[in-house]
């Protein structure tokens, strides 16, 4: 599938109608999501014919992109039942298969097929400190091949040091730096959206 076609399909997906701020529910835009998954597949071969898990899948954007790019099986994990219902409807609309698991990622106990690749846009940890690193810690235990994740650029040194020292990563590479619009989370933010710098990472588990 061509990049533009993937971007178009992701742009048609239903997203959070009443986002829960405490869960940091903001969608990955179709421009970023399509490029994230497209480079995971075309630069690294981490998607096609792989078992892919989407942690904090929300309305399913990243996992569905993996399915459209030929993943063998995709598992979407989220704590929020309402998001999973939207993700499931999105999968039906796209006519692709995706399995859904409702749980807190920190308690994810998977007994199914070996997961090759985890893709995720975790909470940045603005509402619950450390949420971003909790996702990374579990993803690096579960994935056998690679983890793709978005993190605030301001945390770059901390992320790199922690995953290599404590989280079972053998390598941690920033693939690119992006501008990301998040809805304002605090009353003192004057603008409706805040534009922040975000790193797209690729981690390889040991
Ligand atoms: C930034 S949104 C990303 C949503 C979606 N992956 C996307 O890219 O559009 C973060 C997602 O993580 C979910 N989430 C937050 N904390 C969670 C937890 N502890 N366990 C599982 N999911 C969680 C939220 O419900 C939300 O869907």
UniProtKB/TrEMBL annotation:
Methyltransferase small domain ranges (all copies): 48-129
Pfam family, any one: MTS
Source superkingdom: Eukaryota
Listed InterPro entries: DNA_methylase_N6_adenine_CS (IPR002052), rRNA_MeTrfase/Polyamine_Synth (IPR051720), SAM-dependent_MTases_sf (IPR029063), Small_mtfrase_dom (IPR007848)
A GO molecular-function descriptor: nucleic acid binding
Family of the protein in this entry: Belongs to the methyltransferase superfamily. PrmA family.
Protein name as it appears in the record: Methyltransferase-like protein 5
């Amino acid at each position: 599938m061509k990049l533009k076609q993937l971007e178009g399909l992701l742009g048609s997906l239903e997203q959070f109608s009443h986002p829960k701020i405490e869960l940091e529910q903001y969608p990955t835009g179709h421009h970023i999501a399509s490029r994230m998954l497209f480079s995971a597949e075309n630069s690294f071969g981490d998607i096609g014919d792989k078992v892919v898990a989407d942690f904090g899948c929300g309305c399913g954007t990243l996992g569905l992109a993996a399915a459209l790019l030929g993943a063998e099986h995709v598992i979407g994990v989220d704590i929020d039942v309402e998001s999973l219902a939207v993700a499931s409807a999105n999968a039906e609309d796209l006519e692709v298969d995706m399995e859904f698991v409702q749980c807190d990622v920190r308690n994810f106990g998977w007994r199914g097929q070996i997961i090759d690749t985890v893709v995720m846009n975790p909470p940045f940890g603005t509402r619950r400190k450390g949420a971003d690193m909790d996702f990374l810690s579990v993803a690096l235990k579960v994935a056998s091949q690679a983890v793709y994740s978005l993190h605030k650029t301001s945390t770059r040194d901390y992320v790199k040091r922690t995953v290599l020292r404590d989280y079972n990563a053998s390598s941690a590479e920033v693939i690119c730096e992006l501008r990301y619009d998040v809805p304002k989370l605090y009353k003192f933010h004057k603008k409706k959206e805040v534009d922040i710098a975000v790193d797209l990472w690729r981690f390889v588990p040991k």
